[in-house]
From TrEMBL:
Residues 9-208 form the Ketoreductase domain. Keywords: Oxidoreductase. Belongs to the short-chain dehydrogenases/reductases (SDR) family. PANTHER family: OXIDOREDUCTASE, SHORT-CHAIN DEHYDROGENASE/REDUCTASE FAMILY (AFU_ORTHOLOGUE AFUA_5G02870), SHORT-CHAIN DEHYDROGENASE_REDUCTASE FAMILY PROTEIN. Its EC number is 1.1.1.100. InterPro entries: KR_dom (IPR057326), NAD(P)-bd_dom_sf (IPR036291), Sc_DH/Rdtase_CS (IPR020904), SDR_fam (IPR002347). This is 3-oxoacyl-[acyl-carrier protein] reductase. It comes from Micromonospora purpureochromogenes. Pfam families: adh_short_C2.
Length: 248
């Protein structure tokens, strides 16, 4: 096994069975970490990610957990630490992308948006820090929509992603004395199932970026991996856009 940047580290990526989460899990494994991923609906895709990580010579587990369920999320964190021996890196990636006009948005939609996008990162971090020592990393995945909602129907989603800025800065201040860093990565348009680069609004969305294109999930994962490493030990409380100039 080749020694790499994250050798000996253990990471948990929520929503790691697809999209940015899967790309992040694979990048962390390629950089040397053992990785746990949570999944909710698609066991087969999560199992594929596990096999890909194992093919890199790293250990991996997939844990079924709905991020809207605090007990399930805490169990996923504890299981990661128990089965893989420790926990060094938490990536809060799982998200709920529910859109709709304010006079049509249901109470259930609002509750799930808040539960998955705001409460879950707090709950996961709360559980993770019980296992982390100095050098721990908490990295959340935000959204360019939190900075610039260019289409109607995004108010609840934008609200939920904006809340991650406050969570990141507050936790960075609280956990700094313990040597744990907390940062927020804010992707721009990224080619995923939820927002495919060949989708019906893709041309308009591309036009809002300075680079005129979507990101690949691997490009977002690269920033997460950078923040997970030792070279960024003095970076905390940062909100880092990886958005192709969407908000410039």
């Amino acid at each position: 096994m080749t020694t790499t940047l994250l050798d000996g580290k253990v990471a948990l990526v929520t929503g790691g069975g697809r999209g940015i989460g899967a790309a992040t899990a694979l990048r962390l494994a390629a950089d040397g970490a053992d990785v746990a991923v949570t999944w909710q609906r698609d066991a087969e895709r999560a199992a594929t990610v596990v096999k890909q990580i194992e093919a890199l010579g790293r250990r991996a587990i997939a844990v079924r957990a709905d991020s809207a369920d605090p007990a399930a999320l805490r169990e996923a964190v504890d299981r990661t630490a128990d089965e893989l021996g420790r926990l060094d890196i938490l990536v809060n990636n799982a998200g709920a992308f529910l859109v709709g006009a304010i006079d049509e948005f249901t109470a259930d939609d609002l509750e799930r948006t808040i539960a998955v996008n705001i409460r879950a990162p707090f709950v996961a971090a709360q559980a993770a820090v019980r296992h982390m020592t100095a050098g721990g990393r908490i990295i959340s995945i935000g959204s360019n929509v939190g900075e610039r909602a260019v289409f109607p129907g995004l108010a609840a989603y934008a609200m939920s992603k904006t809340a991650l800025t406050g969570l990141t800065r507050g936790l960075a201040r609280e956990l700094g004395p313990r040597g744990i860093t907390v940062n927020l990565v804010v992707p721009g348009p990224t080619d995923t199932d939820a927002n495919p680069a060949d989708g019906p609004n893709a041309d308009s969305i591309r036009g809002f970026t300075a680079l005129g294109r979507y990101a690949s999930p691997a490009e977002i994962a690269a920033m997460v991996a950078h923040l997970a490493g030792d070279d960024t030990g003095y970076v905390t409380g940062a909100v880092i856009a990886v958005d192709g100039g969407f908000t410039s």
